[in-house]
Design goal:
Helices cover 56% and strands 12% of the residues. The protein has 186 residues and is an alpha/beta fold. Helix 2 packs across helix 4 and helix 6 packs across helix 7.
Length: 186
């Protein structure tokens, strides 16, 4: 099976869906964020599970804005894995920089994403919403600078876009599985 690439803003449901699909199809789950954390480790950072929301995680994101080195290395690693197929990859760059694969964008409002983040990370909603808005802005700037597209706006590279605001993860998975199965048949 060709690589399945899941993208969407923070807390849109990327990892949840990717893990469900990996289990459904019995293929590997590859998290672009985890690969980026490995690169951060090489730079002397100490990433944890919800590291991106920490002061150190935000510091690393700002450092990324001053160099293409980290992202270009990540891109290379993700493409090498995607070429092999039989995987589900979460990534913010791969859908735009690699022409192959089944590409799915999960769309969700900042308010819904903040609720999810607050619950997942045990933080106040207001703090999560502020973080979501800041991170969205920083990531949009970074990817516009690096690649020329706008995250959550330039969606023409995707085979399927789903609004996850009012859908349970199982329903999203069922929709995506039907889409992928039809895509593979075609």
């Amino acid at each position: 099976m060709e690589a399945i690439i899941i993208s969407g803003m923070a807390s849109s449901g990327k990892s949840t869906l990717a893990k469900m699909l990996a289990e459904h199809y019995n293929i590997e789950y590859v998290c672009g964020g985890d690969m980026l954390k490995e690169i951060a480790k090489r730079e002397g950072y100490n990433p944890t599970e919800n590291w991106w929301e920490t002061k150190e995680g935000v510091e690393f994101l700002k450092k990324r804005q001053n160099t293409e080195e980290f992202d270009k290395l990540l891109d290379k690693m993700l493409i090498e894995r995607a070429v092999k197929g039989d995987c589900v990859i979460t990534s913010w760059a791969l859908p735009w920089i690699w022409e192959k694969g089944i590409k799915i964008w999960l769309k969700a409002s900042p308010e819904v994403r903040a609720k999810r983040m607050a619950k997942r990370d045990s933080m106040p909603y207001e703090e999560a919403l502020k973080y979501i808005k800041t991170r969205d802005e920083e990531n949009r700037k970074l990817y516009k600078k690096l690649y020329g597209y706008t995250l959550d706006k330039d969606l023409n590279v995707f085979d399927l876009v789903i609004n996850t605001d009012n859908l349970k993860p199982e329903v999203i998975k069922d929709i995506v599985v039907m889409f992928i199965d039809e895509h593979v048949k075609a």
